[in-house]
Design goal:
Elements lengths: L13 H15 L8 H4 L19 H8 L13 H47 L5 H16 L3 E3 L2 E3 L5 H12 L12 H44 L5 H31 L4 H12 L21 H28 L50
Antiparallel strand pairs: 1-2
């Protein structure tokens, strides 16, 4: 084979020299080789988008930094030991603050309730001298156990409404959603065993459905952002439109899941608005103290659809609140902490919690942009 424009055949070592020269130019980012090189030697195989880092001749810090490079950006372990220690101290301090406030607010009320109970017991024994104090205490404990089992006294009969069809359905919902109010629990061994398997399979199913509903809500947010950007042209920066759509989603969710349901609870349960709002947050956040529970007042008659509507509200409300909590986590965790391994700044990672765009969506001029799945061969992705 001859080089174009030359009458002399190439030296036998010339193709190997061209090969080494071409690899050196390609790895160093120089200009591409001239077209006549491909006539002498075969074209080299292009490097993979994410080659393994070369560690020969470089220091330990550079090696760690190279090993921390990820195709989706960011380092696998965020934060330093100092940051983790400060976070742990802040966590313990926050718990100490809550302990002090709850102790100050509820400690006095609990002591007063205990004193009133003792005064009522002594007054009952004083007015009815034939009563045995031990027998009275035993009767009170039996009433408490019966109430926890779902038995409610109504005149000369008992009401077992908690384990009816609607009550059992609501118990199933509170089980797989991990709310666990605590007012109702299985009493037989067979029921406890079935509850274990039911929760073991139902909780993952609920989390999958919760995640899917969250993504649907997120897609609706970005679809609304694209509509706003196309219709009103809110500036050239798509982030402004996305922030506006996210704010509207937060406000509308707060309205539908926290402001309107307490009004329904005020009408059906007879609670105050503050009690209904408190119940809404405690339920949707899966705290579930059990002090306020819908459909458990024996003195009221509830519609048939009431608990079914409340169950749907719990499902969609938990999806929305999980998005909000993940957004708060994303904002608190995106403070730019450095990596434990390489010391580099931590960048955003694909799949981090928060109101990020679902795959294949974008608010830029109303067009759907394809997400970047592979890095450019000549571009390094740093920590």
């Amino acid at each position: 084979m001859r080089i174009p424009g030359s009458a002399v055949p190439p030296h036998p070592l010339l193709p190997a020299l061209f090969d080494v020269f071409h690899l050196a130019r390609t790895c160093s980012g120089w200009m591409p080789p001239p077209p006549w090189v491909s006539l002498c030697v075969p074209a080299p195989v292009p490097p993979s988008p994410n080659p393994r880092p070369r560690t020969a001749g470089i220091g330990r810090a550079s090696t760690d930094r190279a090993m921390c490079r990820r195709r989706d950006g960011g380092c696998p372990v965020p934060g330093t030991m100092t940051t983790t220690t400060l976070l742990l101290l802040g966590y313990l301090g926050y718990l100490a603050l809550g302990t002090a406030v709850f102790w100050a607010l509820e400690g006095g009320a609990e002591r007063q309730a205990g004193q009133r109970l003792q005064l009522d017991r002594w007054a009952l024994l004083r007015n009815h001298t034939c009563l045995d104090p031990a027998a009275l205490d035993k009767l009170i404990k039996g009433i408490v156990r019966a109430y926890k089992s779902g038995v409610i006294l109504q005149g000369n009969k008992t009401n077992m409404g908690r384990w009816e069809l609607v009550g059992s359905f609501f118990f199933s919902v509170s089980t797989i959603t991990t709310i666990g109010y605590g007012n109702l629990s299985p009493n037989t061994a067979n029921t406890r065993l079935f509850c274990i398997f039911f929760a073991f399979l139902g909780i993952p199913l609920h989390l999958i459905l919760l995640n899917r509903l969250g993504w649907l809500m997120l897609a609706w947010v970005h679809q609304s952002a694209r509509i706003l950007n196309n219709r009103w042209r809110l500036g050239q920066d798509p982030r402004l439109t996305k922030r506006l759509a996210q704010s509207c989603a937060l406000l509308s969710g707060f309205l539908f899941f926290f402001l309107l349901p307490p009004l329904l609870f005020c009408h059906v349960e007879g609670w105050s608005f503050e009690e209904g709002f408190y119940y809404s947050f405690i339920t949707l956040s899966t705290i579930g103290f059990g002090d306020y529970i819908v459909g458990m007042n024996p003195e009221r008659e509830y519609p048939v659809w009431y608990k079914n509507v409340v169950s749907l509200w719990i499902l969609f409300g938990m999806s929305w609140l999980s998005l909000v909590i993940n957004l708060c986590i994303h904002l608190l965790d995106s403070s730019g902490a450095s990596c434990l391994t390489c010391g580099g700044r931590r960048g955003p990672r694909r799949g981090e919690p928060g109101l990020t765009e679902p795959p294949g969506t974008s608010v830029s001029h109303g067009a759907s942009q394809k997400p970047e799945t592979e890095a450019s061969p000549g571009r390094e992705e740093r920590c």
